[in-house]
Model the fold of this input.
Amino acid sequence: MTQTKRIIVNTLAQYGKAIINIGLSLYSTRLVLDALNISDYGLYSVIGGLIAMLGFVLNSLVITTQRYISYYKGKGDENYIKEIFANSLLLHIIIGIVLCGALLLIKEWLISNVLNIDPVRTETAKDIYVITTLTLFITILTAPYKSLFIARENIVYISVVEVIDGILKFGLAIWLTYISADKLFVYAIMMLGILVVNFLSFTIYALVYFKESCIIIRPKSINRKCLSHIAGFASWTTYGMGAVSARNQGFAVVLNHFFGTVINASYGIAFQIYGAMAFTVTSILNAMTPQIIKAEGENNRERMFFLAEKESKFSVLLMAIISIPIMIEMPKILMLWLKDVPEDAVMFCRFILVSFLCDQLTMGLNVVNQALGNIRRYTILMYTPKLLSLPMAWAILYYGGQAQDIMVLYLIIELLVSMMRIPYIKRAAGLNAGQYVRNVILRLLPTLFVISATGYICTTAITAPYRFVLTFVLSVSTGFISAWFFTLEKAEQDFVKNTFKRLHVCLI
Done:
């Protein structure tokens, strides 16, 4: 399979998975919220989110392992790839034990002195804390195997596993409505069980089909130099991902401190929608990231920048076409979805989705820096502002600010960091900044305006009961039409035409 065809197949697999999982995830959240009630859902969001924020370790290790495997596949060094995986697995085990052990040690202090929890639910909160800590450990162990699938560009299998994951969570949400036991405790246990299924799905397949994978680390496979390189790259990646997670989940803790668990339900719902929308972006990231890193391994920097532009442009385009009409009709959609909509949920959803769009404008350049491997300075410059927004948010609320004020701060920082990537990569790797702005940002602006204008006109001119359906259909339609004329380049238009011609021939 050619590189272009592989990208297309992987993108379609991830996009199909995204569509299925968005529907399952959003409806599952409604069922879970209804079964647990707003207070218990907020409790799970703040405790589970507090542990999950340390899942940045997982993301950083996935990125690190996948980066080194993809890079040396570009170099053609298969033997070194085996050493990379073995040493990466060892690093995952060590970090998992240390991190989860530390979390268990601070359990009593955190629940008793930091979190604002109803005394009646304190013991349950402690149980949820232990279960989510085990969830984090299993997640960390899954990372090296999942990164191997991404590096080998076997995105189809990842998509299948993640669809099954969505189906299992949907089944759990339905089951919760019929049981009489402590639903919050059962929900946490079953979420852990679903994660174990994911771990086994990735591990068993990798051991059978990928010769570089292993489950037992032999002493001769341990390479101190390799381990040092992986640990060094992972440490800075961990700082970056940790800054994002600390900001996202730290905001939840700050909101909990000032407003209680009910507002955490609103914030948690916003991140549920964010996670569902982000599925559309992973369809591009997982398909193109290995190719970008391989291009640098092959010393083909021109192709690396070309793919980075495509990744940024199409991730924003796919996200915007879906998310903008949803943001415009957010009040009605949440009312139909949840029935009992927590206060401020609409505001949180809109700010987080707009911030995510801003970040994606230059996400391809983030992958370029991973390929370059010069990560320390980049990480400090790009992620420290996100981390600093957390004490700034605390100060805003301490001096009488409202929840909306800290979300304005959230948006400003995301946009600032996104724009900072352009001059940085220009200096670090010779990016043509003007070309990037023309090919990505300026080509996206007309389509973003058309989608937004269509949605605004629908909401002001139409008062039908199910107007949101019409808003969505018209916004998506005008978005695709605008993208064809303003966002797609001539070569991309020709590629789409030829693809549809081949599909037509196959169907005939």
Remarks:
- The chain has two domains: 3-431, 433-508.
- Residues 3-52 form the longest helix (50 residues).
- The chain has a mean pLDDT of 82.
- The chain has 18 helices and no strands.
